[in-house]
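QA checklist item 7 of 12: single-chain prediction sanity check.
[x] sequence parsed
[x] length recorded as 270
[x] structure emitted
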Amino acid sequence: MAVFEIIMPKLGESVEEALITKWFVHENQYIQEDDVLLEIATDKVDSEIPSPVAGRVTKIIFPADTKVAVGKVIALVDTAPGDSPIKETKGTDSAKTADEAVSIAATPTGNATIKSSSGRFYSPLVKSIASKEKITAEELETIQGTGRNGRVRKADMLGFLATKTNSGKPQVISSTSVSAPIGAEKPKAPVSLSAGDEIIEMDRIRKLIADHMVMSVHTAPHVTNMVEADLTDIVLWRTKAKEGFQKREGVNLTYMPFITEAVAKAIRDY
């Protein structure tokens, strides 16, 4: 058995750990190279991690919702060719397999031929599902992705297939329709504050920002510093010049230009 270790990647120079948000595979599942293994999240970005090798997932060391340090082994993959369910055949079987491969490549939903007219990126897993379920490139364009920058994820594909099966024709899938696992009972929508309002759950990044803002209240002193300045001369000069300025420039003369000039000079000097 040839074991390959999948390690937690380093997604940034200052990143020391990442959160495993979701596994797309399970133990004893066979995977191909570039198949999406898991989704990880840091304070700055969410990323889908592809497999660098083909083989069988023998062990998932850390489950979802676990923070793991960069460089730690998170899963094991057996790359021994003898364990693969795909074996070479001879004679008519190999010819048949070759014909099938050519047929798949010729179809508009084959992995290699799915091209987005808008330049949209599709992961190998999404292309594989599209090929298996005979989803055309035009139908893929209608799917609203819930991943980063609108990327289509596995959950989006499953939601699209479920809707297509129920209605008999494809429909555009919104991000809210795939927020819960397929088959799970969807929670009831909360009552809006007023008619026409829509309450949308915060994504992970927004939750982190909210948590950090609350933490800052408890860890850093919040004070107000008052500094007095004598603006008597400015007030008198403005009172004398504001009418002429209004007629000449067509706008009201406020105190902001005086403050801006003072700040600019201070920045230049210090």
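[x] summary fact logged: Residues 142 and 172 are 6 Å apart (CA to CA).
[ ] second reviewer sign-off
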